[in-house]
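Trying the structure run again after the queue cleared.
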Amino acid sequence: MPVYEYEHTSEPCELGLIFEVEQSIKDKELTHCSECRESIHRIISRVNISTPKTNAELRDLGFTKLVRRDNGVYENVTRRDGDSRYMEKGKPETIPNVKKTIQD
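Done. Tokens:
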């Protein structure tokens, strides 16, 4: 369930000037503080998006990362057992086997 930040428009109460409320995305925006009944408004806050940063994290999530090394040659930096280290133009046997990583 999302957490929204609200700010008092006047003096803060025990919750502070800015406080968090966990509510459904379908719920209407709050207009009054549940603690002091003063008026409040929702503020825009930053979101945390976690993205993989290393080749090992990408591999563990099922991604394949190819890095260009030469004209028509790419290094598979997320290779798994049985995969070729390099993928070369015109050599289909060097293409990573994605069937090993795709699961239902």
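The first helix runs from residue 55 to 60. Worth checking whether this holds up in the mutant runs.
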